[in-house]
Design goal:
globular, 6-stranded mixed β-sheet, about 30% strand, single chain, alpha/beta
């Protein structure tokens, strides 16, 4: 399986495109705003996108849903606590920032609770409910790789000053779930470079004190 990262939109959101080159099946995680490069890449590769996974429904992570869905007809997965955020610019935050157009997407096809085992691209995916940055944040676990949205960054953690954010909840999520993963786990974040659980355990000032 190949994992490609595309940085999209005004706040440089990491969108992930995963695919098997043999059968041309793929998955998109967090289609960000201004998704032309993502759409072009899907077309170049001739991919059949099986699913659009959303780690959380802030505007910068859902801004490309409409275009990718129109191209691929792929179903959208989001946590049930943020299902209505897709169509609500106030909840997804697009109405809160000057210069950001209101983001309104059609409803998701599937609502998640956390704890699901999904099967895509010939592999098992685990869905972890990892709230704090937002109430419906989820982390997708694919073997030794996680896609955690804005829960954890290299050397930092997600902000909690947006509607629905809660610092204490985020710290519990990090302590009880994320930092319990194996040290070699690759962490593919919603913004910035990738990292590993072991590196963050050793060097991230927000989590070293909790271990």
């Amino acid at each position: 399986m190949i994992i490609e990262s595309l940085v999209l939109g005004p706040v440089m959101t990491n969108t992930y495109l995963l695919y098997n080159p043999g059968d041309k099946h793929g998955v998109v995680i967090d289609p960000g705003m201004e998704p032309a490069a993502l759409v072009r890449r899907i077309q170049e590769l001739g991919l059949e996108i099986e699913a659009i996974f959303i780690t959380h429904a802030h505007f910068d992570h859902i801004g490309g849903i409409r275009e990718v869905r129109a191209l691929t007809k792929a179903p959208v997965y989001v946590h049930e606590l943020e299902a209505d955020w897709l169509g609500d610019p106030q909840k997804n935050g697009s109405s809160l920032f000057a210069g950001i157009p209101p983001i309104q997407c059609g409803p998701a096809d599937y609502s998640l609770k956390g704890g699901e085992q999904l099967f895509f691209l010939g592999q098992d995916w685990q869905v972890m409910h990892t709230p704090g940055h937002s109430p419906g944040s989820v982390t997708y676990v694919l073997g030794s790789v996680i896609f955690c949205g804005d829960v954890l960054f290299k050397g930092s953690i997600g902000r909690t000053d947006l509607p629905g954010g809660d610092h204490d909840t985020l710290m519990r999520t990090l302590h009880d779930h994320i930092m319990e993963l194996p040290e070699e786990t690759r962490v593919l974040c919603g913004h910035g470079p990738e990292t590993t659980i072991g590196r963050e355990q050793a060097y991230n000032p927000f989590v070293t004190g909790m271990l």
